[in-house]
Amino acid sequence: MNLYLQSRMSHKIRNVRKWLAATLALTLFMTAIAGTAAYAAEETVTNMQFSYDSADYDTASSSIKVFVEDNKVELLVYATTSSSTIQKDVTADTTWKSSNTANVKVEKGVLTGVGQGSATISATYKGTTISIKATSSYVYSSVTLMQNDATAAATKDVELGQSLEFTLKGDSEDITDDAVWSTSSSSIATVENGVVTLKGIGTATITAKHKGKSDSIVLNVTSPYKSISISPEETQEMNIGYDDLELNASVESKSGSSSLDVTDAAEWSSSNTNIATVEDGVVTAVGPGTATINVSYKGVKSSVLIIVRTAYQAIKLTPEKEINVQLQDEPVQIQASVQNNDSTSDIITTDSDAVWTSSNPVAATVSKGLITPKAVGETKISVAYKGLTRSITVNVYPTVSSISVEEDELEGFIGSSEDLPEVIGKTFAGDNVDVSKLIKWTSSNETIAVIEDGKWTAKALGTATLKGVVKDKLVEVKLTVHKKPVKLVSTNKDISAIIGKELPYPAITAINEDGEEEDVSAHVTWSSSSDNLVLKKDTFKGIEASTVKLTAQYLNKSVLVSVKIEEEIVKITVEPEKIQLYPGSSKSVKVKGYYKSGKTVSLTTKMNWQVSNTNLATMKSSSSVKALQVGSGKLTGSYQGIAVTISIVVSPKLKSLVLSDKSLTLAAGQSYSVKLTANYTTGEPVDATESAVWTTSKSSVATVKDGKITAVGKGSATIKASFAGKTVTIRVKVK
Fold first, then answer.
1. What is the DSSP string of 650-661?
2. Is the pTM of this model over 0.90?
3. 100 vs 70: which has the higher pLDDT
4. Which of 123, 275, 409, 424 is the most exposed place for a label (fewest CB within 10 A)?
5. How far from 249 is each of 228, 243, 258, 302, CA to CA, in Å?
6. Backbone φ/ψ region at 688: left (φ over 0), alpha (ψ -120 to 50), beta
7. H/E element, 6
8. Residue by residue, what is the 3-state secondary structure of 452-474?
9. pLDDT tens sequence across 158-170
10. DSSP state of 422
11. Is pLDDT above 60 for 6?
12. Correct CATH for 569-650 of 2.60.40.1080, 3.30.565.10, 2.30.30.240, 3.40.50.300
């Protein structure tokens, strides 16, 4: 009996004899080689030895014997130390090493055969090392694939459909069932316990492996047939809902001398089962489009194109729009019809091929187009007919005891069109339900307004009553049609609002498309850009300092008003308090406001200035006044209700001054009066003699008062007259 068989027999009783391992083991003694000197308190190894099953030891090679992919041998290590003479198992604490892991591997004392050869196994514990030789061998010297009791060839040509079986021998032993069988391509061939199943055309390698040894064979798989054909072979056209199409498949032998019908045995498939399906050659049209029908049998393949169409152009439901009913209503009948390709139509409501369905049968059911409400809810009623489908939505509402609208008055302009009002129904339980879709609307005067597609449309100026009815319930809405506004104008674009104080809304004027102006203040809807502005019916109030946009909406137009919410102004000062101008000149004013808190703010551009006489002056800008003609008047403005007034005096503009004489020669003691004339842009000269300021350059020669010159002493002097910013002179010589 060889060593491998002895090993296998011993493994069967190994567990029983395990506890005797220490006494039956062959021991190797080894004196530890001292390293560095140890401290007296440090534990040292005084003795180490291996322990193993005697059946695993080969005396011929003086080594532990292992076999590749077969048994694993366990080595134990026992040691005594300087602190105890009792042997203890230190296997788990030992460091293990193999000198050749390509032959033998070791892990925690367990040896595994990897390849043919030997290795030295070392175990180290606390600096002490012991070793033992291990030898690895194959269980079988070789394994061989067999077919029909003969060695299988390296390659083999086979045909699909052919049966094929191999066995595996290890030396002379049949190891077929113990071997691991595999294929390189499962789409070509599969294998199980040596039995090969051919799947497709191509090449596949079949391999059998056991105990580290393997053998393989290359299979070249071909079809036993030359080709396969489909009948009919040309492109086929089908209509949904009509008869199925039967296809036949036949294969031709390689010699071409014979053919075989394989319709039932072949594998059939469709490239798109949403278009057409196939089973045993029978094709069924499912949906419009194209699909390729494929057939294969023992490696040969073929296909045919199928074109699927609907037999009709379209399907139509009457009514076409959604249906709205109440739970207590009678069933509703709808009609389905199809248009033929020749443009004629057929009613198919009750046709046996027309399939009616409800997406929510809890809400409503359908049978041959008859819809019966069952419960409050929504459903989609559909009809399918020979590849065509059409649906309609059905809404089932509860019974309502009353109906109402939020606003019973509407306004519009000629040509405007808006959605009909939302109608709310009150149920028996007291719940509010939107029943707008149930309402049937009419107009009391279709000259003024008409009802179309869920909207009212204004046609002419006037008033019409829109009436909404469901069962015996009625709501009425008054519609007033105005002229179409093209622009809205506010009396104030900027408003100052004192925190906490209410103000009236500014007046709003609509400029209509015919050019006429209309006060629509009572008809506008106000909205605010911020919660800092509280809106009431006729007034508004600011609650926090900020700037807010106030919007007035009237029909299709709107206008913005800027509202500045601020502290209360307690005093306003203006500079200058009096404005003197001449025609054509301008003057700026400055206004300062004092808040209750003591802070100041410039109000110059916020005063809404008004001139008492628009012929006298006008506002050039929000802070500058321009004189137009001579006269006097007042400039007034206000902010937060505090008014200020500035006097305006417009004088004519002085063009030139003219003296009656240019020079004089007088004797000492002699007097002479000259006249000063003022010429204005108004064209009317004025005597300014007494109004002018007169001066002399040398009072020892001559003096002057109100134009009267008196000679005093010999010499020359210059007399000057000044008026309204201009001056003129006269030369006086005294003899």
1. EPPPEEEEEES-
2. no
3. 100
4. 409
5. 7, 20, 14, 9
6. alpha
7. helix 3-12
8. ECCEEEECCCEEEEEEEEECCEE
9. 999 899 999 999 9
10. P
11. no
12. 2.60.40.1080
DSSP code for 19: G
3-state secondary structure of 356: strand
Q: b vs e for 134-173, b when ≥16 Cβ sit within 10 Å of the residue's Cβ?
A: bbbbbbbeebbbbeeeeebeeebebbbeeebebbbbbeee
Quote the distance between the C-alpha of residue 121 and its chain's center.
67
Task: Bin 175: left if φ > 0, else alpha if -120 < ψ < 50, else beta.
Answer: alpha
What is the residue type of 683?
Answer: G
Q: What are the tokens at 716?
A: 């020359």
Q: Report the alpha-carbon distance of residue 190 to residue 208 in Å, rounded.
A: 12
> Is residue 15 predicted with pLDDT exceeding 60?
no
Beta-sheet strands, E only, within 175-329:
180-183, 189-192, 195-198, 202-210, 213-222, 225-231, 236-239, 245-246, 248-253, 259-261, 267-270, 276-279, 282-285, 289-297, 300-309, 312-318, 323-326
Pick the CATH number of 315-397 from 1.10.1740.10, 3.90.1150.10, 3.30.110.40, 2.60.40.1080: 2.60.40.1080
Structure tokens at 319: 């009514």
For the chain, give every domain's residue range. 45-137, 143-222, 225-309, 315-397, 400-482, 485-566, 569-650, 654-734
Is residue 234 classed exposed, middle or buried when 0-12, 13-18 and 19+ CB atoms within 10 A define those classes? exposed
Token output for 446:
């279709």
Q: Which fold has domain 485-566?
A: Immunoglobulin-like (2.60.40)
